[in-house]
Amino acid sequence: MSDDCDGALSAVDKYEPYRREPSGGFGSLPPDPSRGGLPGWRLRRVVDFMTEHLARDIDVDELVTRCGLSRAQFFRAFRQSTGQKPSRYRRAFHAVSASRARREIAG
Is the pTM of this model over 0.85? Predict the structure, then answer.
C-alpha cells in the first residue's frame, strides 16, 4: 500500500501547479501536444473544484459537468492528463491535503 500511495502522492504533487494559487492566478501547464488529454484550463477547473470541495464527497458527474465532455471522454482525457482515474487522483489529493494540514499543525 505504501508504494501505491507514494505513486499517487507524486502524481498529485506533479499537478500542484494546476491548483489555484493564493493570489488567484493559475499555474501553467507544461505543453505536451503528443499526449492528448484535458486542455490545461479544463484540468485546472477540475482540480480547483476538488480543492474548493475537499470537505465533501464529490460525484464524478460533477467533475464531468465542469469539463463539458461526455463521461467517457472525460475519463479518457483525465487519465491521459494525470495517469490516474479521477477517483484515485481524488483519494491521493485528499491524502496530500491531510498530510499538509498535519504538518502545518505540527510545525
Answer: no
